[in-house]
Write a structure and sequence with these properties.
The protein has about 170 residues and is mainly alpha-helical. It has helices spanning about 1-20, 30-70, 75-110, 115-160. Helix 1 (about 1-20) runs antiparallel to helix 2 and helix 2 packs parallel to helix 4. About 30% of the residues are buried.
């Protein structure tokens, strides 16, 4: 049930972002375009990113619950899987939470008519930097790598545990 709920939350949030925010293509646009679009649709986009931030924590919960499902919890591969599952969830949450906390602040500042052009350029630079670091490096690449390693460790452990059918692993 936890795995299904997690998958449904991820799918629903990404679907909303794709329909309203042109996700994932919007991530490769210039920062000023991204922030302008975010400002216009944040009433829908921000809750979707809250849900995605939450899925980082549901990922951690799944990693812990699946670890507990095995009979021999002391196996190195299973412990590594637990570590990678927790790391993946933590990095996912860190990658998505910027859209909830930092991006609204930057979008609001960018659309303020009293803000000088040099400040707008600085805002775009900050947003672009966070997009590349928190989004691409932490959320997309490192979290996905940890998620893949978690899945691999889990699958290999399932193949050895009598509780699971080897084909499931």
């Amino acid at each position: 049930v936890a795995i299904l709920a997690h998958a449904l939350l991820v799918y629903a949030a990404f679907t909303v972002l794709a329909l309203v925010f042109d996700f994932p293509e919007v991530l490769r646009r210039p920062a000023t375009e991204r922030l302008d679009l975010f400002q216009r649709v944040q009433g829908i986009v921000r809750p979707a990113y809250w849900v995605l931030t939450l899925t980082g924590f549901t990922q951690i919960g799944m990693a812990v619950l699946l670890h507990q499902a095995f009979r021999d919890r002391g196996r190195t591969l299973l412990v590594l899987g637990l570590v990678f599952g927790v790391v993946a969830g933590t990095l996912q949450a860190l990658g998505f939470v910027r859209w909830v906390v930092l991006t609204p602040y930057l979008a609001r500042a960018l659309t303020d008519p009293a803000v000088p052009d040099v400040t707008r350029q600085a805002i775009a630079l900050v947003e672009g930097s966070f997009n590349r670091y928190a989004g691409m490096a932490v959320g997309e690449h490192t979290a996905t790598l940890a998620l893949c390693l978690w899945t691999l460790c889990l699958a290999l452990t399932m193949r050895r545990d009598p509780l699971f059918d080897r084909r499931l692993g």
